[in-house]
């Protein structure tokens, strides 16, 4: 059992499982985006490890840029999405691959997709490390899913609980007491 602030967690997805799945997704992207000079759009903060590991395994010419978004408080999603750092380069005509840590209600991704599509990219796909299908409120298109998980709070590998727990190389799941 691992304690983070007032909650208890246990290991759920190991570092080895994450790395193996990230390599598989990167391989698919290498094939699909060969010759397309894609722009990876990483969603901060929670995705920073996923972004880095995908990027290390992508071996085609590409760029990376970041959006910083905040919608979570404590252990639940809120409807108030704050854009803390916006797009700082043009994505018009580019093949954009959005990299998310987790899709929960779908609200954040829906907001991001609307922001991105307004700028007329050539194409947009979404890769998320984690997806909670049973938590969906707004259905959003997702093209690459690392792991489908149950509707329970998780952290680690960049994901946090009120800022803590990001520095675990495996994904941990909350244990009910
Ligand atoms: P959504 O807008 O409800 O889909 O939530 C997406 C965002 O909420 C993600 O990018 C995460 O930052 C955060 N989030 C959702 N579920 C979890 C979780 O189980 N643990 C930590 N953060 C989460």
UniProtKB/TrEMBL annotation:
Enzyme Commission code = 2.4.2.8
Task: Name any GO cellular component annotation.
Answer: cytosol
Q: What subcellular locations does the record give?
A: Cytoplasm
Protein name as annotated: Hypoxanthine phosphoribosyltransferase
> Which cofactor(s) are needed, names only?
Mg(2+)
Which BP terms in the Gene Ontology apply to this protein? GMP salvage; guanine salvage; hypoxanthine metabolic process; IMP salvage; purine ribonucleoside salvage
User: What NCBIfam families has UniProt attached to this entry?
Assistant: HGPRTase (TIGR01203)
According to UniProt, the reaction catalysed is: GMP + diphosphate = guanine + 5-phospho-alpha-D-ribose 1-diphosphate; IMP + diphosphate = hypoxanthine + 5-phospho-alpha-D-ribose 1-diphosphate
UniProt lists the family membership as follows: Belongs to the purine/pyrimidine phosphoribosyltransferase family.
Q: Does the keyword Glycosyltransferase apply?
A: yes
Name any one GO molecular function: magnesium ion binding
What residues does the Phosphoribosyltransferase domain cover? 16-161
Q: What are the alphabetically sorted keywords of the record?
A: Cytoplasm, Glycosyltransferase, Magnesium, Metal-binding, Nucleotide-binding, Purine salvage, Transferase
Q: Which InterPro entries match?
A: HGPRT, Hxn_phspho_trans, PRTase-like, PRTase_dom
Q: Write out the pathway annotation from the protein's UniProt entry.
A: Purine metabolism; IMP biosynthesis via salvage pathway; IMP from hypoxanthine: step 1/1
Q: Which Pfam families match?
A: Pribosyltran
């Amino acid at each position: 059992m691992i304690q983070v602030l007032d909650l208890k967690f246990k290991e759920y997805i190991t570092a080895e499982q994450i790395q193996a799945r990230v390599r598989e997704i990167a391989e698919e992207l290498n094939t699909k985006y060969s010759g397309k000079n894609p722009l990876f759009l990483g969603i901060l903060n929670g995705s920073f490890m996923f972004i880095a590991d995908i990027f290390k395994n992508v071996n085609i010419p590409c760029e990376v840029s970041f959006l910083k978004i905040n919608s979570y408080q404590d252990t639940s999603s809120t409807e108030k999405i704050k854009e803390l750092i916006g797009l700082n380069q043009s994505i018009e005509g580019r093949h954009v691959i959005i990299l998310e840590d987790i899709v929960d209600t779908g609200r954040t991704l829906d907001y991001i997709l609307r922001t991105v599509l307004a700028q007329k990219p050539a194409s947009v796909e979404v890769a998320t490390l984690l997806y909670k299908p049973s938590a969906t409120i707004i259905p959003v298109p997702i093209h690459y899913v690392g792991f489908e998980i149950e509707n329970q709070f998780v952290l680690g590998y960049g994901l946090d609980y009120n800022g803590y727990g990001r520095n675990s190389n495996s994904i941990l799941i909350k244990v009910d007491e």
